[in-house]
Amino acid sequence: MRYIFANRNATTLVMLLAAFALLAVPAFAQEDTEGANEEQVLSFVDDYVTNYLANQPNLGLTPIFPTLTEDQAIDFQEAFVDEIVAQGDAVVGYKLGFTGYAPLPFDAPRPIYGRLLASQEIAAGNPISVSENFIAGGVGVELGIIISEDAAFAPEDFPLDDETLMNLIGGIVPTAEMADFSSLGAVNYLDLYANSAAAGIFVRGEEVTLDELEMGLDNIAVTATRDGEVIYEGMSGNLLEGQGQLAALSYMLERLAERGLGVSAGDIIATGTFGADLPLTPGDVEIDYGPLGVITLTFVE
Fold this sequence. Notes:
By secondary structure, this protein is of the alpha+beta class. The chain is built from eight helices and 14 strands. α3 (45-53) crosses α4 (70-86).
């Protein structure tokens, strides 16, 4: 059974997702009063991977484990992605989500992140089937930062100065990142953390070095049209309540540092949408990044 919510508004979507949280909750969930059991939480990883590979919905974890912590949700994400990688995929970078203004969706206290996989990248212009590729989602108009070298930091290194951050940027690419909110029981940001921040499909344009960029990272104006009609206008600096692209990169690096992790040369960091997500509806969408070029998305039913 498939549930296609891509064209619903956010309020309706959340109500529908919450309704599905009542399905298939194991009996031991009622005993989750002193903290979620790590082994029981991770026992769902294989089911998540099976459903992900079959493009089928997963039940959110918080209806099963009401006391799930953020660390446990990220532990789950890492195990979930590691298993997909073990089956032949590869991590090519990270994505940030909920980088807008407070209050953030799904009761998130701060932005979340997930991992981007090689299999999730498609070439611009290739037809994207809404019904076959998405359960519920939207299109984020973003920038991708290409990491220039391997780098890892300790939590006490933050905040990083602008020079350190700029030296880590090998280039930037226009990026359209299409999230897939496939946890039907997701009523909390932790469900999305476990599901790799709803990473779905992403498309990138041509890479531009900072030397080639004719304006600051936060001054790139973007316009999107569908079938010739303007549906979006935004500015690249509109992230983290206006703090901008370097702040988003620093935030991503700090979250990884908390886990004892870093980034690798060539990784792409999708820093989050700098405006409202575009709806996943059939049609031809062109996202014009000015001097960075145009990304073309062709959505079909």
